[in-house]
Design goal:
elongated, mainly alpha, 2 helices, single chain
């Protein structure tokens, strides 16, 4: 099995539509080490 770090070297951005943003951000941080850089509101929805 190839480690995750060998599969992806860089990710520029990730856009998600989710029901529970804070929980999703926390999960991606724990599992992949992602760091939230920016949050956006479109049509009144975060």
């Amino acid at each position: 099995m190839v480690p995750h770090s060998a599969l992806i070297r860089q990710l520029d951005h990730l856009n998600l539509t989710v029901s529970h943003l804070d929980e999703t951000v926390a999960w991606y941080g724990r599992v992949f080490g992602f760091v939230l850089v920016e949050r956006d509101v479109q049509d009144g929805v975060e």
